[in-house]
Amino acid sequence: MKTLGVILAGGNSTRFGEDKSLYKIDGKPMVEHIADIIKASHAADEIIVSTNSRLKTAFNYETVTDDDRFTDKGPIGGLFAAASAYPDSRLLVVSCDTPYVPARWLRKLHDAALADSETLVLTKEGDRIHPLIAVYQGQDLAESLEAQLRTGRLSMKAFFEHRKTVILDAKENGVPKDALVNINRRTDIL
Ligand SMILES: Nc1nc2c(ncn2[C@@H]2O[C@H](COP(=O)(O)OP(=O)(O)OP(=O)(O)O)[C@@H](O)[C@H]2O)c(=O)[nH]1
């Protein structure tokens, strides 16, 4: 089974104030930071960007666009778009706003996912779970994401708490806390 690197970049960046995926940190758009990290992990066969219709031509990567029925539903909508477009792939998901995530961590998530093709592999750091630095897979992945979207409960937790899940602790594996920071506001940039 192929592994697809999926960069989630279809949010509205309300807190950031402009499209954060395109915002340059150290001269490079955040989306390119993530793409380079995925490439360096050697965990994905291909990279796509999951985004909204407004941004669909903004990226230099193959793009999937949120389903018309599920626009502005948050990351779960973006994940559904990727899972339904690529039903035969394992999805290595990284949100566009975690530009410091180590490549070796993505590799670790990926390698753990190989043990069971029905199990999700998520990241945690201390008490905090990072469901958007994770591997999503399973035969019924798209169907169950769609079912979750239909319930209107849009948190990733509402989705993954009903799935077989392994949660790897980044801290226990020597990943510094700062490496998992989410850039929600400009002041979050390190
Ligand atoms: N494809 C897709 N991606 C999304 C959607 N909503 C959020 N994302 C992505 O999911 C990740 C986490 O979302 P947030 O941190 O809430 O980002 P955001 O929605 O742009 O930011 P705020 O508007 O400030 O909440 C980011 O990488 C977003 O780009 C969506 O509706 N579709």
Automatic annotation (TrEMBL):
What are the UniProt keywords, alphabetically?
Answer: Cytoplasm, GTP-binding, Magnesium, Metal-binding, Molybdenum cofactor biosynthesis, Nucleotide-binding, Nucleotidyltransferase, Transferase
Specify which residues bind GTP according to the UniProt entry for this protein: L8, A9, G10, K20, D66, D97
A GO CC annotation recorded here is: cytoplasm
Compartments in which it is found: Cytoplasm
Residues noted as binding Mg(2+) in the record, renumbered to the chain: D97
What reaction(s) does this enzyme catalyze? Mo-molybdopterin + GTP + H(+) = Mo-molybdopterin guanine dinucleotide + diphosphate
Say which enzyme class the record assigns: transferase
Q: What is its EC number?
A: 2.7.7.77
Q: Name one GO biological process term.
A: Mo-molybdopterin cofactor biosynthetic process
Indicate the segments forming the MobA-like NTP transferase domain, all copies.
Answer: 5-160
Q: Does the keyword Magnesium apply?
A: yes
In its UniProt record, a GO molecular function of this protein is: molybdenum cofactor guanylyltransferase activity
Could you give the domain comment from the record? The N-terminal domain determines nucleotide recognition and specific binding, while the C-terminal domain determines the specific binding to the target protein.
This chain belongs to the protein called Probable molybdenum cofactor guanylyltransferase
Give the species this sequence originates from: Salinicoccus halodurans
Q: What is the lineage of its organism?
A: Bacteria, Bacillati, Bacillota, Bacilli, Bacillales
